[in-house]
Structure formats: structure tokens, C-alpha cells
Design brief:
- The chain is α/β, with parallel strands linked by helices and about 375 residues long.
- The protein is about 50% helix and about 5% strand.
- The protein has a six-stranded parallel sheet.
- It starts with a strand and ends with a helix.
Length: about 375
Amino acid sequence: MYKTVLFDVDGVLLSEERYFDASALTIWEMLNSDHYLGLHPEAFTPAPGEPVIRQIREDIFAQDDVLNFIKSRGINANWDMVFLTFSYQLLHICAQLSERYQTDVVTALTGDIDRETLISIGELIEQSEIDIHTDYEMFVKDFETSTVEKQQLLLYLNDLAFEKLGVKTEAFSRNSSLWDVCREAFQEWYVGSENVVHSTGKPPIQQGKKGFLANEIPVVSQEAMTSVFTSISQHATLGIGTGRPKLETLEPLSDLDVLKFFDRNRIVTASDVLETEEAHPDLAPLAKPQPYTYVQALLGMDQGAHTALSQSLPLSEGDQVLVVGDSIADLMAARSMGARFAAVLTGLSGQKARTKFEELEADYIFDDMHGIQTLFE
């Protein structure tokens, strides 16, 4: 019998769809808005309709092929997905500019790439009169030539910069200013202009975004979720280890009236991970598939990050811990801990993920979270 059950949120409890929509909109904005690259500022609006959102996501993620590829290589955080996808298009754009503005491009890509840098590249685009274009289909083709996984995918952008432009740089990493720009722009889209100060501590760059907090979709009904949690909470302590920030985790679960089933001391979010990375930059990145999120959730936030980071892995009693997730990143984290892993097929790939989880020998594979209840009967 398991003493602790740790749940991911996206694709397990709540649908990932709006997160992927927000990711696509972030990349679209950063490419087109004059607050960033300004490729097509006339095409940008902070309040696109649903049909426009559907088309933007279909184009930018190449019918979700880009998302599926990134997740298959162990990246599950939306901030990382946005950074990877946007940075790749940035390199593609800079390659088109480099023949005419080689010195400017080299300077931009070898320095600290912040929002001002993006605006300066946008000025080159405007004065060049070159028909600059994006290429979303090439993302998977270029990354498929490598075998890199997890956070090494982000660093591989530096290799692509040399391959495509002959530029030697270390500008692309999770500790970069550009990663922060991507994160903050994503938060604007997801929480909306009115909530962004609470989320990031900064005012919005772009006003008028409604956000998706009020449009969360549970993957099973509220009644079914309540039934499962009521049953298993009688036998085990429930915790959360999620790539969602704190606001986007607590509010929707509270609205569904299921937050009460979790030990609040054992809820670890992307906000907590980011805070720990800032305090321990030498150990970053710590997001999944690194095990820190789940280790901290197991021990409890009151133990402090140092205790979680100093844990010897795999855990001696890891077989008493069950991690429930929908992604390869969750499975990798559970394996590092020595915990058992239950895959649920309610993530992006749905039933198609079954084969991959079987190949990786997940301990359990369920159609949805209902299956967890059977382990405690």
C-alpha cells in the first residue's frame, strides 16, 4: 500500500489545452507584436477570437507535432516549450538577416537577449525590407537530428546557432534573460492582464488579455474527482508536484472544491521551483524531469529546499510513494526518486501514449485518474 500519492496537475486533473493555447499565443505575440520582434504588428491583437486561437496553435505547433516532440524528449514545462519554440524561430529569422546585418546579428545572439534586444532585431527586420518568414515545420526536423533530452534541448539551441549562422554563443539556456521574457509573456496570456502583477510581480507589457483562469477544464467530472480523492485520501497522504505556477494551481482546484483533499504542505508548484533555482543557481534547472518537484512535495515545504536537494536518490522507501502523471518527464522524475509511477492517458497524446509508457515499463497505465482508486480497494 502506498503511503503518499503525488499528482501532477496538467493532463491528470486539469486539461492541458488552455496551457498549450497560451503557449502558442505567447510565441505568436513575441514574433509579431512591436513590443517584441514586430514581424507583423498589424496582425496582432491581445484579444483573438476562438477560431483565431485554434489557427495560431495549429500553425505554430505544426498540428501539435512540435508539442508532441518536445514532450517525448522529457520537457513538460510550458515556459520551456515557449522558450524552445520561440528561440528556434528567432534563430531562423536571424539567419535571414545575417547576410545583410551580420555584425548586428552576432552582437544580438552573443549578448544577453532581453526584450530590448528583440526590439532591436525587430528594427533590423523593418529597415531590411526583406520578406522575413517563419518556418514552424522545420523545428522537429532540426531537433530530430540530435539525441539530446530534457534540459539539454534548451542548450542545443546554441549548437543550432553555430550550425545555421556560424555564431558561437551560450545565450540560450534556462538561466537566460530570454527565458524570463518568455515566462513573463506566457503568464500574461494565461492569467490575464488583471492578474499578472500577482503572478509575476510586474505590470503587463500588453494590456487587454483576458486570460484562461476562468476557463479551466477538468479531465474528469468534478463528482468523479471528488469520489476518487475521498477514497484514496483515507489510505494515503495526497500531494501535488506541478509545472503550473501557484496561482494557476490553487485557484482552479479550489474552485472544483478538491484542494481540501491535499496536504497544503505538500503542494509544490513551478513558482516554488523557480524560487529554489534563484536561491541555488548552481543546481538549476530543477523543473521536471528533475526529481526536485516531487521530492520536495514528498518531504513537505516546511523541510526547506536544502533538505530536498540533499536527499540521496533513489529514496530508501521510494516504493511507498506513487507519482501520478501523464508525461515522460513525470516518469523520469519518479524513476530518479525510486518511486512507483502511474501513467494516465489524459494528456496531449491521449491513448497514443500507451505504447510509449509500455516501452518504458510504467508500473501502471490507466485511462484516467479513476484507475488510481483501484490500487486502494
